[in-house]
Amino acid sequence: MCHSLNKYSKTLTQDPTQPATQAMFYGIGFKKEDFDKAQIGIASMGYDGNTCNMHLNSLAEIVKSGVNRENLMGLMFHTIGISDGMTNGTDGMRYSLISRDIIADSIETVCAGQYYDGLITVPGCDKNMPGSLIAMARLDRPSIMVYGGSITPGRYKGQDLNIISAFEALGNKIAGKISDEDFQGVIENSCPSAGACGGMYTANTMASAIEALGMSLPYSSSYPALSREKKEECEFAGHYIRILLEKDIKPSDIMTAKAFENALRLIMILGGSTNAVLHFIAIAKAIGHPLTIDDFQKMSDKTPLLADLKPSGKYLMDDLHKVGGVPAVMKYLLDLGFLHGECLTVTGKTLAENLEHVTSIIDRDQNIIKRIEEPIKESGHIRILYGNLAEKGCVAKITGKEGESFNGQAVVFNGEKEFIKGIEENKIKEGNVVVIKNEGPKGAPGMPEMLKPTSALMGSGLGKNVALITDGRFSGGTHGFVVGHITPEAFLGGLIGLVQDGDLIEIDAVNNTINLMVSEEEIELRKKAFVQRDFKVKKGILYKYAKSVADASEGCVTDQ
Description:
alpha/beta; eight-stranded mixed β-sheet; four-stranded parallel β-sheet
């Protein structure tokens, strides 16, 4: 083998002054001929406690076998995960966004410290994927992401179920719309097997957009978690990592400005999660590309929403897989001139070459993706709003079904738990703007998702008649008239923390504004009375995160 493939690992395997290192390689099973082989780190985010991740270690073993068949040395290691679905609505959710940076740091640490020549990651849940990509960008060595795949739909009394069904069942129960028996039936049947949450929620949003970015193999985002195709993808990953090594194709060659445009375009087309704004800004920063929240607005302005996918639509990723998956969608976009086909991908080929023999989604018998002439919404669903409530911006998710403006009186809650108590006590009325404050990256800390509140609103029947704004963030499963990532956050004196019950709030998702409609004099009085409180925590990872994290408009990065 050409030694150029092992240009990093030879620091340990070829240096005669490193006998103890080489002795340990023999100890883990190396033969003499293995010391000339390139080493590939295989990072599994598998763990038993989450349906999104429970199968990933077995997939990583298949990846390792495929790598070894290519006369490379696959060396598996593990990193953490936090289940968004399980921790939502609890204090544990504060650790979710933090886990993205821990994942990135740990993968970078292992691969750099162990001198691996390439990297394959096997992620499942939401923060696993941006964590993987941030690490790949920092290392800038041949890398591939193999997505763990989506869960199949659950079934109960003839209805398809998914994780959001379970969340919204709580609102139905509070409103007296569901029996105790059916409430339990939904819970028991919503998640029938391994795989990430099945709609166009954050996991599938990130997986799809990363495929469009060029950092995963074709169909990676679409293959179901337990499918034969997913196992075959894992086997083929070794073949493609060898191609990347031979051609010395690195993440910086793939994650270009045009590639990020491809990713953002697909997010808008598919109606993807607002979490993608945070994550792609962070990924872009790691690779050295100056992506901002305003770039999302620019893409939204020129991109229609075409996908009838949950949470606001009808279909799941499993349905899209059956009619050609994400490559079939990208083929249609390429035909429309919406993608940069010349962008390089982890196959060693361009995006256009990968799609050369793919049949466009529009030429298939399906109702999931609409024609460009008949969009669900003529512009994108992600809107970046500014105003006195969000001087540094915020992110709205407006599919058009909610309307495009909302004016109402504020009903204010100091955190998510206070909100749940408020909805149980019927404090929220039609026409209100619900304000949940002190849930930002520093104030919570950790910027938890407000999926439990939005699901409770939907389940209770209020979801279509109120708006919700927060300095926290939203799950990809959230729908309704919602605005998150409000910056500056309440903890730092942002105006969202100074809103009072009964104040009028105006939100305009056409002109992209969000304002508290009280006098400037009153605002100044409230600002003068503001006293910044101490961090909620005084030690541990939450404390370190609160001290170091940037605001949401900068992607909540911790390596400023």
